[in-house]
Amino acid sequence: MKISQRLQHINTLINAHYDHIWDCCCDHGLLGAALLKRKAASNIHFVDVVPSLMLEVEQKLQYFYPKSAIDSPSSQWQVHCLDVAKLALADKEQRQLIIIAGVGGELTIELVQQIIARHPEHTLEFILCPVHHIYKVRTAMQQLGLGLVDEHLMQENKRFYEILHLSTSSQIPLSPVGSSMWDLNRELDQRYLRNTLKHYQRIAQGFSKPQVSVELQSERAFIDTVIADYQALSPYTSI
Questions:
Q1: Running along the chain, 239 residues long, what does each successive block of 10 average in pLDDT?
Q2: C-alpha 19 chain-centroid distance
Q3: What pTM does this model have?
Q4: CA–CA separation, 134 vs 163, rounded Å?
Q5: What's the CA gap between 5 and 11, in Å, rounded?
Q6: How many CB atoms lie within 10 A of CB 3?
Q7: Which among 31, 63, 158, 239 has the fewest CB atoms less than 10 Å away?
């Protein structure tokens, strides 16, 4: 099957060699297969909680990459049918990259939180590409102590995606609205910024009446902060 532009973009971001790459919520294993083909890691792990999906992935891997025919230890693969939060990572001395793409922001946050909590002594890298709530994801990753390795903005099928490459050892601060990914001379970036601002401004309109609930007041304050952070990016915010 043809790999999507989003997954191919993630594939191109992985230039260093890893001991282990964990392709989580792996969407039929297409990204992991691309990494396996070019031997991007000594071990490629395919992880999802859906048994039927993982059986299909394993059957395809056995057909296209039979283990008996693998000619190098740099191209081993394993299939894991389990909750991504319960990954049994390799030894902490080994270089490991965990990819979580194509799931919602809240689930992404939950998974990363639990992985780090279960492996506090590991130095880990993550590539994240959530489909929603990217501001909350970025803020949560800040709070977990993750720093920026790289970030990219892309569009596929009229939908925008932010791809974050993060590390527990990076000292580069992660911005809640992005930093190095922006090129606001590009129409694509301008359109994404306008669309994002409009989205949060529509949410803010729902809080236009005085609110009694402390919870709603807190949510409105959060939305105001999000809008101000995006507006601070550039003059392209006069909508």
A1: 89 95 88 94 95 93 78 74 95 97 96 98 97 97 98 95 98 97 94 95 81 71 94 68
A2: 20
A3: 0.92
A4: 10
A5: 10
A6: 16
A7: 158
Average per-residue pLDDT for the chain: 91
Tokens 């590009």 label which residue?
Answer: 186
The rounded distance, in Å, linking the Cα atoms of 117 and 120 is: 6
Return the amino acid letter for 106.
Answer: E
The per-residue pLDDT for range 129-177, each reduced to its tens digit, is 999 999 999 999 999 999 999 999 999 999 999 999 999 999 999 999 9
Tokens 């993982």 correspond to what residue?
54
- Is the Cα dihedral 156, 157, 158, 159 positive or negative? negative
Pairwise CA distance, residues 221 & 126, whole Å: 30
Q: Which residue stretches of the chain are H helix? A: 5-13, 30-37, 51-64, 105-118, 134-143, 187-205, 214-231
Cβ atoms of 233 and 184 within 8 Å: the answer is yes
Residue 160, token pair as written in the block: 């925008």
d(CA 95, CA 139): 25
Phi/psi at 163 (5° precision): -110, 120
Which residues, at least 6 apart from 130, have a Cβ–Cβ distance to it below 8 Å?
100, 101, 103, 104, 105, 108, 137, 162
